[in-house]
Design a protein that fits this description.
This protein has a two-stranded parallel sheet. It is built from seven helices and two strands; from the N terminus they run ααααβααβα.
């Protein structure tokens, strides 16, 4: 019960509302490959998802959490529809390019931001496409295949180097890229597990958030493995983050 009786009548106006932070350093992270979690419950894992949500929340159809296309072509219903802002948000009528431009602008608000060169910009685009597949279990097959500029090109690239040598990210075949995504899902799941365990004693609420994120990663990885087996068979080659050159170098360059 609210101890201040004068505030009680105002409470309904603030149900399901959260105080928002500044946009300064909205993309800052401790390491370039660190996956951030946005909003009060950590639902969004990158700025593109946040912008796409505000742009299309009231336009795209509803779906259940974990459904194919979630966060891309459909949205789950709100946790609490009370005081839902439908005047300024939900249907901004932005194009895909305008969404990307807004994300690029938000990243410039990071202290020490440096404009990436053309090569780095292409690597960023590849990394963001991969991250979309990783973080949404987007099921990869929805990404266009057959375009040389596509993240998942249908062209096969033979592994000419020794297993211990680095591979260029752009040289990975569709099979290898999907194997890498699966490996990264497992890595993220373990990271969230470690964070949650370290916080459980003093910050049980935050630990639960990390546990929910861990369970989400487990679900993504399971669906991706099922997809891989349907397309390529039972054996999944070991392709790890440290085996690939260019996966995170764009972020490190600023």
């Amino acid at each position: 019960m609210n101890p201040d009786s004068h505030w009680i009548e105002l409470a309904p106006k603030f149900d399901a509302k959260f105080q928002v932070p500044t946009l300064r350093n909205v993309d800052m992270r401790p390491t370039p490959d660190f996956v951030k979690a946005y909003m009060h419950n950590g639902y969004f894992k990158n700025l593109k998802e946040v912008v796409h949500f505000y742009n299309t929340r009231d336009v795209l159809p509803k779906c259940k959490a974990g459904d194919p296309g979630e966060k891309v072509t459909c949205w789950p219903p709100p946790e609490d529809p009370t005081n839902l802002n439908k005047k300024q948000l939900g249907n901004l009528k932005l194009t895909e390019q305008e969404e990307n431009d807004l994300v690029a602008f938000l990243k410039t608000l990071t202290d020490g931001y440096k404009v990436p060169g053309p090569r780095a910009a292409k690597q960023v685009a590849n990394q963001e496409a991969l991250q979309k597949a990783i973080l949404r279990g987007w099921l990869v097959e929805e990404i266009p295949v057959g375009n040389e500029d596509s993240l998942l090109s249908a062209k096969q690239h033979p592994r000419e180097q020794e297993t211990s040598s680095l591979r260029d990210f752009n040289s990975l075949s569709q099979k290898e890229t999907l194997a890498l995504v699966i490996s990264l899902e497992e890595e993220d799941e373990r990271i969230y597990s470690d964070y949650g365990e370290s916080l459980r004693g003093n910050f049980p609420g935050t630990a639960r958030v990390f546990e929910e994120m861990r369970q989400e990663e487990i679900g993504h990885r399971r669906r991706l493995i099922e997809l891989y087996k349907r397309k390529f068979g039972e054996h999944i080659p070991l392709v790890r983050r440290q085996d690939v050159r260019g996966l995170c170098s764009a972020s490190r360059s600023g």
